[in-house]
């Protein structure tokens, strides 16, 4: 193994995501996941909590996380090994995107794929439901949340739907609620008891564009005889959270705002799932949109008033709603302090669960076995990075993250590019370009390449450091010790096809007749750090 100190990195990350400062093991600090686990939903089964989030055009799709305390999470699997919904998930082209624009996305499915999944446990099985905006509503099931999951079942074959959530009532009847792309109204269907399809065309149960603007992301529950729908309103950046309730699942529903920004800097505290600990205490897991870091995950306490309505977070004087808490007592004490996986030594024949490809990969062009202990990427043809297949990405974790990779360019061919990117709309990267037999360090910003020095065709280090300012600073090292900065601070795109920016490994060639060159990555090291400087 060439990459050590993984445990030390994990311990350092605890101070930045979900762990309270100064060694306080009784409390937690928000956000609990400073990474783009957007549109989260959560359930408890016994002592274990499971979380799913949207994954859009990334493959594998729908990460599944596990926790024992709702604060410390680890990735245990994905629901979808690949995205099988349409040929565009394989990026066939013809491509209309460049590295300077965000749309149109012809020949790809950027911003498509999995939107806002929900997870439930029923009759001994786990169910995850999701919609793709172009193909309809789907479901997969499993007896183990880590997988394997069933192949997707097409529950509703209709485009333009979003955010489905199933519900099994006390009498055994099954229901499905969802919204439409563009947000609202809420539509309820009767569903087959096995959850594989709906039994009717659906009924609008909530629509009020004045009081409930941009109504989406419904999660359906039942408590004390009340049917409750927890749903966000107001839009991604600045919305609030409402709860709707009725004695009948088909309505009519009353509503109340239960969480709003208040006087905090969390300006969009909404969309997520409600869950209770074994002792009956309530908690709400939700996102807050945070620019290039994506929609990061917060945890709020839930209290119930004598009128049966919840108040989420810290109660606001004179109101029936709450505002986000910065820190709070842990929901469950004394549990494992897990963190999501990040760095990798590529020492096993399977990719780590932290990795997701940009769209489905071309499996002919990557390998962990051709050179054991290394990840090999083989270049295909692309004119722009956003059109290249096999970009291997992971979450950007905040508030600061430094990614260092060891790359071996000895098998590159003329016309080939390879390196480390902060991937998203109008991406930038640091890497290598081979031209005329020479390999040069290169910095690229929105497709404009600035060549640097010629380097030997042997392993070297590339580095990208992102700070709270949401800018990236790139550097390289030929000797493995001293880093040379390239360029200055480069702003990251605030939102990239519903995703935050993502560190990624890549290679492609602009010469369609010269594909087949390869590059090897020895390891990826991820360090949370505040000492970012010009070279990290």
Could you walk me through the main structural features you see in this protein, from its secondary elements to its overall organization?
The chain is mainly β and 536 residues long. It is built from one helix and 39 strands. The chain has one helix at 6-14; strands at 27-29, 41-45, 48-52, 58-59, 61-67, 73-80, 115-122, 125-132, 136-142, 153-156, 161-168, 174-180, 186-191, 203-206, 219-223, 226-233, 240-246, 254-259, 270-276, 282-289, 295-304, 310-312, 314-315, 322-323, 327-329, 356-358, 366-367, 375-378, 392-393, 401-408, 416-423, 428-435, 438-445, 448-454, 460-466, 471-477, 484-491, 502-509, 518-527. The strands form nine sheets. It has an eight-stranded antiparallel sheet, with no helix packed on it. The longest helix has 9 residues, at 6-14. It is globular, with a radius of gyration of 23 Å. The two termini are 24 Å apart.
